[in-house]
Amino acid sequence: MIAVWLVATVALVVSGQASGDKTNDNLTLPGTGSTKATDLLNDHLPQQANGNNPVVLEATSGKLTDAQNSKAVDDAVKRLRNTPHVVSAVNPLGSNGAPFLSKDKTIAYVPVVLDVGPADLTEEEAQSLLDAADPAKAAGIEVSVGGYVGQQLSKPSTEISEAIGLSAAVIILLLAFGTVTAMALPIASAVFGLAGALSIIRLLQNVIEVPSIAATLATMIGLGVGIDYALFIVTRHKLQLREGMEINESVARATATSGGAVVFAGFTVVIALCSLAIAGIPLVSALGFTAAIAVVIAVLAATTLLPAMLGALGPRIDSLRVQLGRTHPDDHQPHGWLRWAEGVSKRPWRSVVVAVVILVVLALPLRDLTLGQSDNGAMPKSTQVRKSYDGITKGFGVGTNGPLLIAVSAATPLKPDQSQLDKVESEQQTLNADKQKASNPASDPSLTKLENEISKAPDVQSVSPPTLDKQAKTAVFTVISSSAPSSDRTVDLVNDLRDNVIRRR
Question: Each residue of 345-358: pLDDT tens digit?
Fold first, then answer.
């Protein structure tokens, strides 16, 4: 059994590493306005559906328009345009780049549009896009990337938290068992189970959409339940050995009794995690399913691998004794916990009242709980998305980090505003540029009116002219709020646009 677990775990880890890391943090809510807008853009303006990925450039000395910096920016933009999957990259120092250059000309960003969405972009492809801006880095310009490219390069690191958790578990288990050998068994069982679970989750990324935080959540839950479940069985086994039971019989009885409780408890947790699917949010459902995988593997490890290790150790489970207190755990009963349990069982109603009061006090802060999404400003300062967030906030305002897309669909092709065309024809025949602009379907009166109404909404910093598809039936506006993406004011703006501006159209 130990050999089977070893071979299976190694095979899963190798396969998982070979499959690559492909996560997707898209938060879609079926039936909502945001999902309808995304679906409409995916069908008619797919390059606009996922927005752009800003490559932020911040001069450490002088301005970006200085000769040396300007050349480095131009070279970086050229390399970005030649990077695989890049559809467009606007040079902030070019003729069309004024909106992407800060007023003091020390910060700019290159809006990069890709032909692949978050679900299809690999970490290697994201890194190649960031590396394309190396000419700017070489000139001393600070470079960072946001959007879903930055998300791909800003996945949370769990190594430190895992090390802290395992260290705490080692100390607690040494206090509980008093032997290094017994302490190592729950740790080994949990680590084997977690390695297999994380590898399975990594493989699933090639089949379903898995958020980047899934591995972190699975690690937290998998380690916790893995050590906990193994602790039940080892504790029962050691108590039975102390009472004189034969080793193999003790392993079997511990697995049948405590192991049965582990299976029941584990699958109760699995049902609870899978029930997150009821929320109807794909990302939350994926988090539940992936965490449930970690729990299932932890249960399997506790009921198959752990008994095998107990049988292999035999009487050596009590070797390498460690005494951290005045007495060794094997030399006395846990009288304190025994008295606590007896007191609770003798006075059940009083215990219930005390427990309910404590829970109510702990739940009181829920009255002031505000639900919502955090933005990239909550990420660690060392990550790409946080660096780009801070740079854009400094140069263009915090709302630029969360552009709002308004998708428009028309039953018939949109037409230019004839009154504007007549005005250009009659006043200045030579202004071909104005004429071309006026003859564009983007100047359709209904679109112009909608753009004006959006710009007048509270907390709107700016709104871009509409971008149309080839059939001129679908358009998209980009709205920049004056507030942070996670701000309540931005939420109010979205509701105002939906309820009062768009609904009137």
Answer: 999 999 999 999 99
pLDDT tens profile 424-438: 455 444 444 444 444
Torsion angle (degrees, nearest 10) of CA 494, 495, 497, 498: 110
CA distance 69 to 455: 34
Q: What is the pLDDT of residues 201-259, one digit of tens each?
A: 999 988 888 888 888 899 889 989 999 999 899 989 988 988 889 999 999 999 999 99
Cβ atoms of 79 and 135 closer than 8 Å? yes
DSSP 442: G
Give the pLDDT score at 105. 93
Reference 317, options 307, 327, 326; nearest CA is 307
Percent of the chain as helix, strand, coil, to the nearest 5: 65, 10, 30
Helix (H, G, I), strand (E, B) or coil at 462: strand
**Tens of pLDDT along 21-65?**
777 777 777 778 888 888 888 888 887 878 889 999 999 989 999
SS (H, E, C) 19-74: HCCCCCCCCCCCCCHHHHHHHHHHHHCHHHHCCCEEEEEECCCCCCCCHHHHHHHH
Residue type at 79? R
pTM here is: 0.74
CA–centroid distance for 277 within its chain: 17
Query: The tokens 């159209």 sit on which residue?
Result: 505
Contact status, residue 121 vs residue 53, Cβ threshold 8 Å? no
Contacts of 139 (CB under 8 A, 6+ apart): 68, 69, 71, 72
Q: Which two tokens stand for residue 331?
A: 């030399």
- Please name the helix (run of DSSP H) or strand (run of DSSP E) that holds residue 275, with its range, or none: none
Please list the alpha-helical segments (H only) found in 147-302.
147-152, 159-177, 180-204, 214-242, 247-274, 282-300
Which residues does residue 407 pair with via DSSP β-bridges, in sequence order?
476
Are 481 and 489 spatial neighbours (Cβ–Cβ below 8 Å)?
A: yes
Helix H or strand E encompassing 85? none
Give the Cα separation of 47 and 45 in Å (integer).
6
Q: What is the maximum alpha-carbon separation in the chain? A: 107
Q: Tokens for 168, please give them.
A: 């705490």
Gyration radius (Cα) of the chain, Å: 30
In angstroms, what CA-CA distances link 160 with 28, 163, 166, 197, 217?
31, 5, 10, 19, 14
Q: How far apart are CA 121 and CA 98, in angstroms?
A: 29
Report the distance separating Cα 47 and Cα 85, nearest Å: 11
